[in-house]
Design goal:
The protein is mainly β. The chain is about 0% helix and about 50% strand. The chain is built from no helices and ten strands. It has strands at about 1-5, 15-20, 25-30, 35, 50-55, 65-70, 90, 95-100, 105-110, 110-114. This is S-protein homolog.
């Protein structure tokens, strides 16, 4: 699993991902930095479900955030966002995208609060 910060130059993003049995801890990704983790052991998908929270502050001082399922093994064959061998997600100013079929597709918008 790879998550990229493609927000804006100088804009850090907090990322916190976990499963039911593993907490990957709070990560701070600066612009164009990535966070990677592996949950595949070469034979079996070890963890079936991961969810993440992302949060960043825009130029107007507002918080942009969202919490979402980033991988769901039970939906791997029914929903394109989970149909991946190396899942790749990116945060952009207008939302959260997953990589599918050679391009990024927006999956979620930001929730904006003061």
């Amino acid at each position: 699993m790879l998550v990229d910060n493609e927000l804006y130059p100088g804009t850090p993003m907090s990322l916190h991902c976990k499963s039911g049995s593993k907490d990957l801890g709070l990560q701070i990704l600066n612009y164009q930095e990535s966070f990677y983790w592996d949950f595949y052991d070469g034979r079996l998908w070890v963890t079936k479900l991961y969810w993440c929270s992302m949060r960043w502050r825009d130029g107007k001082g507002r918080y942009n955030s969202n919490s979402f399922v980033i991988y769901d093994q039970d939906k791997r064959y029914s929903e394109p966002m989970y149909r991946c061998d190396e899942c790749r997600w990116t945060a952009r100013g207008d939302g959260i995208y997953y990589f599918w079929d050679g391009k990024y597709v927006r999956a979620y918008q930001w929730n904006i609060t003061a």
